Amino acid sequence: HLAQAEAEMQTRINETLMLEGVTMKDPRTCYIGHKVQIGQDTVIQPNTTIEGQTRIGTNCVIGPNSIIRESQIGDHCVIQASVIEYAIIEDQVDIGPFSHMRKGAHLEKGVHIGNYSEVKNSRLGPNVKMGHFSYIGDAQIGANTNIGAGTITANYDGENKNLTVIGENVFIGSDTMLVAPVTIGNGARTGAGAVVTKDVAEGTVVVGVPARAIRKVGQ
Hints:
Shape: elongated
Structural class: mainly beta
Radius of gyration: 20 Å
Largest sheet: 12 strands, mixed
Oligomer: single chain
């Protein structure tokens, strides 16, 4: 009887949302909580669950196979086969497939998150690109920075969570390990496979294990 009541309530929620301008390709496979708010012209793909006091803007595409929990999502966003929990996603952000935005993730306008990436307790500035296979935890990243594949912030030293700060227009090479606490200045670059254990000055290129400065950008 409880399952029947739940099914009836879900049907009513989905029908109400569709009458308000939300598109559902297969409402039978969409579970949406009664506190969820979704804007007009947003498309909810099959096998999607949206829970808690989640707010989704207009003209978004959510799913298929996505889970969104207690999060805010702006307008014109695409979230494909990913999990979003206790996060803030601003306008024109695309995520996935197969990525996880954990508690405290804040993605500003125009951020791109590719496949198999994870963000926790971090703020990514406008137009940051993080293509795939990366972990960003306890970090602040400036606008227009590129995070190469396989990059991780080593934020936990066994006792404390430490902060990584990355400036604007930075290029982080593939497989870079950023050992927090560490700061990367504006316009800096890291070579592929670098292990960064010390702060990097603005406009500086660092390579190696541990990373060392070799030149200024453009020289």
